[in-house]
Amino acid sequence: VQLQASGGGLVQAGDSLRLSCAASGRTSDANIFGWFRQAPGKERAFVAAVRWRGSPTYYANSVRGRFTISRNSVKNTIYLQMNSLKPEDTAIYYCAADPKTYGDRDVEYQWWGQGTLVTVSS
After folding, report:
1. Which of 18, 42, 59, 110 has the most crowded Cβ, counting Cβ within 10 A?
2. What is residue 108's three-state secondary structure?
3. What is the pLDDT of residues 66-96, one digit of tens each?
4. What phi, psi does 121 have (nearest 5°)?
5. Side by side, which strands form the sheet with 77-82?
6. Strand 77-82 with 32-38, pairing
7. Per-residue pLDDT, 55
8. Interval 47-72 mean pLDDT
9. What are the pLDDT digits (tens) for 3-28?
10. How do 116-121 and 54-59 pair as beta strands?
11. Positive or negative torsion for Cα 94, 99, 102, 106
């Protein structure tokens, strides 16, 4: 499975941004797709995850209620809609996938895309 993340950029606090992750290859091998982020000087952290075949969705407490993960099975794309962005959301965001049906740790994901940088100014 190959993953290509896009959509990052520089925004102001309170703004919204939508990240996309295009999946290709043997996408039928993947059951869970997730977003992780790595802020400067910090370890990579779980943000959200969704099962490819439908609900449920999973969120980190820090983003629940502000971020929404979704997938478009026709376009083979996973989205992360980020609303009410805060400066502490600044990070490189990565999409990932794995054959398992759940995972909230980066070690649980087999396939990774390159990161896309999100910068939120105050």
Report:
1. 59
2. helix
3. 999 999 989 999 999 999 999 999 999 999 9
4. -95, 150
5. 2-6, 17-24, 77-82, 67-72
6. unpaired
7. 78
8. 93
9. 999 999 999 999 999 999 999 999 99
10. unpaired
11. negative
What are the C-alpha distances in Å from 58 to residues 25, 34, 51, 93, 121?
25, 9, 9, 16, 27
For residues 50 and 69, is the Cβ–Cβ distance under 8 A? yes
Residue with tokens 């049906």: 101
CA 78 to chain centre: 8
CB 26 within 8 A of CB 115: no
Token pair in block for residue 50: 């969704």
Averaged pLDDT of the chain? 96
Name the amino acid, one letter, at 77.
Answer: T
- With 90 as the cut, is the pLDDT of residue 53 above it? no
What are 58's two structure tokens? Answer: 């999973």
Q: Closest Cα partner for 73 from 55, 57, 52?
A: 52
Residue 73: C-alpha distances to residues 21, 38, 50, 52, 85 (Å): 12, 27, 12, 8, 27
Question: CA neighbours within 13 Å on the CB side: how many for 53?
Answer: 8
Phi, psi of 43 (to 5 degrees): -80, 160
Judge if the upstream peptide bond of residue 56 is cis by omega within 30 degrees of 0: yes
- Hey, what are 43's tokens? 């370890």
